[in-house]
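Hi X.,

You mentioned you wanted examples for the new student's onboarding notes, showing what a folding record looks like when two proteins sit in one file. Here is a clean example. The first protein comes first, with its sequence line followed by its structure tokens.
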Amino acid sequence: MKKIKILGVLILLATIVTAQPGSKGANRKQHIHMLDSMVDLSDEQKAEIQVIQKSYNGKMAEARKSGDHESLKGLHMSMQKEVHSVLNAEQKEKLRQHKMEKMANMKAMHEEIRQLNQERIRPVMSEKRKEFDQQLTDEEKAVIHRLRKQMRTRKEQHETDSMMMFGPGERVHIMHHFPEEVMDELQPIIDSHDTALQPIVAEIKTLHKQLQPEIREIKAKYMPDGHQGMMNEHGKRKGMADKRGENMQRPKGNWMAAFFLLMPEA
């Protein structure tokens, strides 16, 4: 359990000390400043962390350029461990406490955003989905049913893995992205019903846009000043492509139509 907790802290460090693709010195200083605000770093520690970050820049750039996600993941974890070793026992405890608070806030924020979508968007989507279902062939319905079940199993496994990593009551919000093989099977259905799906997707986009002021208010309530810009309209962290698996990038093509087709049955 101790190792699991340490891993959770290291993952939190990933959001603080790891520069995103294209980041320069300014971003490194920003990440150090964020860590400093949590654990009160000494000048010597700041300098040491900056040296650690710089030592990984070239290797990470090469891994990103070559698309070697496994190497990039290993480099991230290695750098995080080095940064974690710079902290003293009191600072590590502060970071752990901050992680616990952050996880609780993020869970509450995601739940509010989810509830807002459930109340304002889900009813429209459900009604549209019932109407659209009449246009599908039995074969298409079977494909969608199988893929929906596959994605539900994947989500449950992801939640189990998160419980093992973070411990009871500390689950992270699951990001819903499609494996490429799922999108490959959905794309022919999307293409066949493109005319019917286009106005539905347009309406869903409009509804999402209308919710943005309320979503920004929710994020402002749970997130520190300046951190809201790091999240997208669903309350999820931007720039996470490098942290997803090689086959788990945001689907090519009409991903919103794919979400519509695979939405849970009412």
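Then the second protein repeats the pattern, sequence line and then tokens:
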Amino acid sequence: MAPLNESSGIPLYVQVVEELNKKIQEGEYLPGDRIPPEAQLCEYFGVSRITIRRAIRKLVEENALYTKQGKGTFVNPIKIKRRLPKLYSFSEDMRELGLTPSSRVLEQEAREADDETAEILKLPKTDRLVNLISRVRMADKMPILIERSCIPHYLCPDLLKDNFETRSLYGAMAEEYRLELYRAEETYEVRLVTAAEARELGCKRNQPAFAIQRLAFRKDGTPVELTRAVGRGDILRFSVQLITHEVRFSRSVFNIESGDTGENDETDT
């Protein structure tokens, strides 16, 4: 039985809402999962069916859950729509969507680049070291991407002294080394999530995912970053809206069940 506090002054249904939200945020209930039926939740929380129904109704109103008649109540798969044509910062984009960005570092070390990476980054033959930073990128504590970034060591030899769980990689490159990104090339493919990736992303193995490769350059054409990322296909959406004589970019969090979209538009002519 979950520990609800009847003497706290907080309504029991609110406590149930908080407990269910916690299970969603911690990945116990994944996007698309069916939550336990009302009778089981009543027994688990030690409350009445009326209290459970009120809590579920509140979570549906908050777009955390949705119901299917005759099938049950499910965790809402939220799509994060990301702009494609412009250079972006994960942290900035998530904040603009009203989400709280965070990162968890998996690897952070200097190592010798393999032949393919050295060629793509045009590394000097005398210095093939790269700063490798591998992170899980999260929005509201939900894992979204695994990013594996390689930055030429000769351009920023002390980069790894920073803590990239709390600091922006692009911010550190710009502020400490004046490495301003001018343009980038990205490629997108679709593949399945591996077992190891699923553990880090909190999703199911063999779930569809985006495989993203990003190569960023300074204005003089020097490659400064090669990032290979895996993004959850159940959460991410990439879109471009093309209009005669202009291109319109939009970002939103999209509720695929209700169809509600909160958008943030930008227009270039």
